[in-house]
Records
---
Amino acid sequence: MSRKINLYLVEYAINALFRNRSKNIFIMVVFTLLTALLSSIFFITGSIKHELQSTVDALPQIVVQKIKAGRHYDIDTSVADEILNITGVSEALPRVWGYYYFENAGVNFSVMGIEQYAQQYKKSFDTVVNKFDFDELDSNKQMVVGEGVKKVMEKNYYNKYFNFIKPDGTFKQISIAGTFKGDTKLESNDMILMSTQNVREIFDIAQDKATDIVVKVPNPEEVTTIASKIKLLYPDSRVITSNDLQVSYQNIFDYKSGVFLALFIVALFTFFMIIYDKASGLSSEEKREIGILKAIGWRVDDVLKEKFYESFIISFLAFLVGTLLAFAFVYLFQAPLLREIFVGYSQLKTSFELPFVFDIQTLFLVFFLSVPIYIAATIIPSWRAATLEVDEVIR
Amino acid sequence: MFSKKIVLAFMLLVGLYSASYAENTFSKMASGKPTLIQEGQKKKWCSVCGMNLKMFYKTSHTVKLKDGKKRQYCSMRCLAVDSHEHNISLDAVQVVDVNSEKLINANKAFYVLNSKIKGTMSKVSKLAFASEDEANAFAKEYGGEVTDFKTAFAKANTSLEKDIAMVQMKKEKKMYPMGKKIFEKKCQESIDPMAYKEINQLKSAIASDDKLCKPLKEKQLQAVALYLWDIKRVDKSKEDIGNIEIGKDEKCPVCGMFTHMFPKWAAQIFYKNGNIEQHQSFDGVKDLMKFYFNATAWGSYEYFKKENITKILVNDYYNQKAIDGQKAFYVVGSDVSGPMGNELIPFEKEADAKTFLHDHHGKSIVTFDKITKDEVSKLDK
C-alpha cells in the first residue's frame, strides 16, 4: 500500500467543498473567527504576562519606606548607611522620585532622580548613565525621558522642554536632552530621568531625605532575614520585599485574566455547539453521496480519506487565517476593545504597548483545540454512514 | 553660582554623613568660618580620613606633632587612629567648643558622650564644651553623659575596632565602587597616590588642579580620594581568585548530581594530576569535604592527593563571590540547608560567620583545617 497522497481524492475533496459553497464558506468564517478570538486571547495574556514578569524581575529586592500615621513619608538618607552595615546587604541606595501628574494629558509621569556615580538598581539605568552625564544634565537643567513620555509631551506642544509646577506654584523649566528605551514598555512609557537635585526641587524634598531606599541582597535566601532586621532597626518603616510585590501584581493579573477565562469559555462552548451539531448526524444528501461513492466501487477507507482531506483543508485553512488575523489584531492594531479589559492593570493611567511574544505552545494549543476536533466531527458520522449497506443508504 | 554649588555639595554631605535620625536641628557643620590650623590647601580636610572639616567642625580635634607639624581631625576617632601611628602628646590636643566654635584645650573641656547626635565615624558622638554648665545643658536637651577628655578618649580607643569595621564596610560597599567610577570617567590615569603623604594632600592636589580631575563635587572628591588612597596606593595586588565556573556536564563525584543546577552552593577543588591541572566540582562544601578526606571511596580517584591541591573555591554565603576555601570560615549546624541537606556554610570573614551563626541558629564556626571527617559524616544524620 503506497503512502502517497491520492491526488484524485484531494481533487474530489476540493470539488466537494466547492459544490457546497455557501455552507462551507459559512463554516470557514465561523471557524476563522473562533480561532482568531481564541488565539487573540492567548496572545494578549501571553504578552501581558511577559510584561508583568519583566516588571517584577526589574523590581528591587527590598524597598524600605518610612511610615508615619499610616502614610508614606520621606525617609532619612542616613538610614541607607545603617542598612548598608547589615551583613549580607551589598547595596542600599536612597531613591529620590515621585509621580508627577500632567493634567493636560491626564497622565502620571514617574520622575526618577539619578546619581551619576552611585550604583544603579536597574540595568536600563546603567545604559542611560553611560549615554548621558547626569552631572552635566544637572547644571544644564536637562532630563532624559522615556520614548512614550516624549510622544505625550509632543502632543502637548512641549517639543524641547517641559514646565514642571513646583509645590509653591512656580515653574521649573527642564529641557529634554534625549530619550531612552526602558526594559519594559511600561517603563519607557511613563519614566522621566533627571539629576537627583532637580527632582528634589520639583517635589520639594529636603537634602537629607529620600523617597525610599532600595536594598540589594546578593543571596536571595537572605532577603527575609535582612528584611526583618531592617524592620527591627526602624520600627517606623515599611519593608517591602520583591516577593510581596510579585504576589500583589499577580493578584491584579489573576483577577483580570479571570475575565478572559470567562470569554474563553464562551468561545469554546460555541465552538463545541457547532461541532456537536455537525457530529450528531449527516444530512440525507450527504449520506446518499457516500452511498453512491460506495456503489461505484469506493472502499470505506477511500471515503474516510476523502472526508479527512475535505475537513482538514477547511479547518487548517481557517486555523491559519484565524491566527494570522489574531497576530495582526493583537500586535499590529494593539487589540482594540479586547485590551480594554486590561486597562488599569498598571494602576497608572499610562498606556502600554503589547510586546511581541511568540509562544509556539499557544499556537499548538489553539491548533489542537480546533483542527482535530473538527476533523473528528466530520469523519465519525461519515464512517458511520460508510459502514452501512449501500442499498440501505441510497434507498 | 559656584559658591551655591559648594553649599549644595556640603548639604549633601551633611545628609550623607551626619543627619541625625532623631534630631534635625543640631548640625555639626561650622556656622561661620571654621578655624583650620593645618598649612596650605590641604587644611580643609582631615589628615586621617580626608573628610571635610567644615562639615564635621563641631567634633574636630587638633594636635601638634613633635616635629612641629599641625594636624586637624574630623573627630576623636581619627585622633585615636593617628595616635597609634604617631607619637602624639595628648596634652596639646585642642578641640572645638560646640557653642563658641573656637578651639579650646581638650584636657580642660567637658565632653558629652552618647547623646542623640550621631557620632562622626563612630557609633557614639563625643561633643566638647568649654564649661560644665554648657555641657550639662546640652546633655539635658539631647541626652548623654558628661565626662572629661581622658574618659572620652579611652572610650574612643576601645570602640575603635568596631568603628573602623563599620566605616570600612560602608567604604567597601559604597565609596570605593563610586570612587572607581568617577576616577575612570573624570580623572587622569596617571595620578600617583604614592606621591602624597596624607590623604588631605591628595585631595587638595586633585581639587586645585583641573588637569588631574575635572571639577568634582565634595562628595565625589572624597570618593575618588578614598579609592586612590585605600585601593590604588595600597595596591592590593591580592590576586583575583577567579569565579566558580561549571560546565553543563560536570557532576558531583560524591552524589552524582549535576553541579551547574546549584550555582549558589557550588564548590571546586583544583589539583595537579601529573602536570595537568584538573578540578572536581561539588554541589556543596559537605560533598567536597567527603571527597577531600577519602577520594577513592567515590570512584577511582587514586591520582587525587591532598598535597597536589592547588586551590579550593567556595562561594561566600552572603555576597555569593568565590573565595579561597582553605581560608574560609564555616558554620556548622545552621537551619540553612543546601541541595544535599545539612551543609557547611562558607564565609570569607569571621564576623560574617558570627552574624550568620546567630541569625540561623548555627552550632559552631570552624576553619578549613579544623573540619574533621567525623563532623562531616555527622551532618548526614
Note: Residues 160-186 of chain B form the longest helix (27 residues).
---
Amino acid sequence: MLLLVLTIVLLALAAAVFRIGRGRALALAGGLPKNLSALPRYYGWYVVLWGFLPAVAVVALWLALQPTIIEALVIAGLPDELRSLSDAETGLIYNDIRNALAVGKLPDDARLADAAAHYVRLTGRAPLALSALSVALLLAGAGIGLRMVSPQLRARRMVEKIVRGLLLVSSTIAVFTTIGIVLSLLFEALRFFRLVPITEFLFGPEWSPQTAIRADQVGSSGAFGAAPVFAGTMLISFIAMAVAAPVGLLSAIYMSEYAAPKVRAVLKPLLEILAGIPTVVYGFFAALTVAPFVRETGGLLGLDVASESALAAGVVMGVMIIPFVSSLSDDAIAAVPNSLREGSYGLGATQSETIRSVILPAALPGIVGGLLLGVSRAIGETMIVVMAAGLAANLTANPFEAVTTVTVQIVTLLTGDQEFDSAKTLAAFALGLMLFLVTLVLNIIALYVVRRYREEYD
Amino acid sequence: MLQTQTSSLSYAHQTVEETPSKVSARGVNVFYGAKQALFDVDLDVPVNHVTALIGPSGCGKSTFLRCINRMNDVVEICRVEGDIRLDEGDIYDLDVVELRARVGMVFQKPNPFPKTIFDNVAYGPRIHGLASNRDEVEEIVFTSLEKAGLLKEVRDRLSEPGTSLSGGQQQRLCIARAIAVNPEVILMDEPCSALDPIATARIEELIDELRQIYTIVIVTHSMQQAARVSQRTAFLHLGELVEVGNTEDIFTNPRDERTQGYITGRFG
C-alpha cells in the first residue's frame, strides 16, 4: 500500500519536474525552441531522469536491505549477555521477538522487552523515512538537473545515452542469469566428479544412484554410469521426432501450399492449440490413456510391453512437438519467394514437383532449424517422461521397455529430503550440465542454420 | 529430336506481314476479382519475331503476357475470358504442363532456384523427361548455356549455386533454363529491369539471336529497348490494346494520339 502511494507520488513529482524542466529550457531560450540544442521535451526528460533514477535506485536498495539493517539494529540494542552470543543464537532470539510480536504479544523473556519495543519503533518509522528520503532525492536530483539546463546542453544526446544504458542493463540481465545457472551447474558438477570419475559417469553402463548413508545399509551400490540414462533420453527423443518430424513437416506443406485460405484459417490455430496444452496434461494422457493402449495392443500381438513404455512417452511427446515443427516449417516455406514458385510453374512443373524440387530445398535450412529446436525440446522435456516413461534405468533400444531419461533422474534425485553434499544429489547437477551442453550445441546449430537461411533470401 | 524443330524453316528473315502467327489472342478479358484488368484484347504474335508489349505501369501488359502460358491460373481471384490459340490450338485444351513446356517464361527479377548452375538448367528437362541418362542431360545443359551465351563464363563452376552469379548472369541462367525445355515461345516479363546497362545490352543481343529459333514476346518499360529488339510492338493503355504494328511504324508514325503521347514522353 505504502509502495503504491509512494510510486504515485514519485510519478506525479516526475511529471511536474518534466514540465518545469521543459519550461525552464524554453524560458532560457527566450521562448524560441530553435535556440535550443534539442527539442524542449528532451530537457524535460533530462531533468526527470536526474531526479527519478537515483530515487528509484535508493528505494530498491532500501527495500532489499531493510530487514537486514533492522535485524542488526535490534540485536545491537540487546542486553550485553545476549549480544555476545553466537550469530545463530542471536538470530533465533530475533526470530522469537518477531514471532511474539506477530501474534500481538511481548516476548516471554523480559530481557527482550526493550528490544521488542525498539523493533516496533524501527519498523514503524521505516516507511516514512523511506518516503521522505526518496522524495528528497528526487527533488534534489531534479534540482541538480535543472541547474544543468542551458540552451547549449545537448539534452537529446544525454537522454538517449541514458536510455541506451537502461536497454543495455535489461539485455544483460538474461545473459548474467544464464552465466549464473551455468556456473552453479558447473561447480556442483565438479564436486560430483571429485566423488565419481568423469569417465565412469559418461560411459558406465549401470545407473543406481542410491548411495549408502550408513555402512550397514543394504542394496545401495551407488553406481553412477549415466549411459543408460542418456540412452533413454535418446530413445525417447528419437521416437518423439519420428512422430513429430514427418507429421509436422507434411502438415506444414499441406497448410502452406495446398490448403484453401479458409481451411488454413481453421486448421492452423487448432494445431497451435496443441502447443498450449500444459505438458503435465500430456503426461497423464500418456500414462493413463496411451500407455495402457500400447500395452494391450502389444499384448494382442503377442509382444511383451511394459506398462510404462518408451513408446507411449515418446509418441505423446512427439504429438506435443508437432506444432513446433509444423509452425517453424510453415514459416520457412512461406518465406520462400513466390518468384521461385512461378519460375518452376513457368517451366511446366506441377505443384508437387515444385514443392519437392524447389520449395523444400529452398526452405530446408529453416525446416532443419525447426527440427533441431524440436529435438532440444524433446531432450529437455520432463513432465511427460516422469509420468509415462518410468524410473528403471535400462540400457536398451527396445521401445516397449521402460526406460528413464536424464530429466526424470534429475527430478527423482532432487525431490524429497536430501543432503546436498552426497554423490546422489550432486549427480543431478552433473546430469543437468550434460543436458545443458547437449541442448546448447543443438540450439547453436539450429540458430546457425536458420541464420544462414535468412542471409540467402532477405 | 526436339532440338531441331523450327530452325529449318525459320521465318526470322521475312517481314512481319508475311509471317504466320504463333500465338493469336481474340477478345481477351481479364478480371481480378471485380476489377477488370484487360478489355477485349486482340493480338497476333508472329513466328520467329520479337513482339514487344509497351505501355505505362498498370496497363495490363504483364497480365496479358501471363495469359499466354496461363500463369494467371495460380492467382486465385484472377479470371481470364476469351480465345487464345497456340498454333491454332486453344491453350485451354492443352494440359497446362504441356502448354508451359511449349511456352517458356523469363521473369522480371532473376529467380534461379537454390540449386547448382547445372541443376538449374537440368530442372526442366528432368521434369519433362527430355533426357534418359546423365549424358543427355549434360548435352542439353551445355547447349542451353551456350545458346544463352553463358557457357564460357560458367563452364568451370557448374556445381556452384545459381545464386552465386551476378544479376546479368543469373538472368541469362534463367533464359538457359527456359531454353532447356525447348519451348516454341519465350515470354519475357521486363527481363532487364533489374540489370545494369551492360548486362542489358548482352540480354538484348541474346534476344535477337534467339528469335532465329524461338518466338519471343517481351514486356518492357523501356521504349528504346522495344525499338532495339522488337519487330512488332503493341501499345497498351488502361487495359486496352491501343495500337499494334511494325515497331518502326509505331515509333516513327503512330496512328493513335495516345501512342504518340506515350512514346514522346508526354505521359506514362
Note: The longest helix of chain B spans residues 134-147.
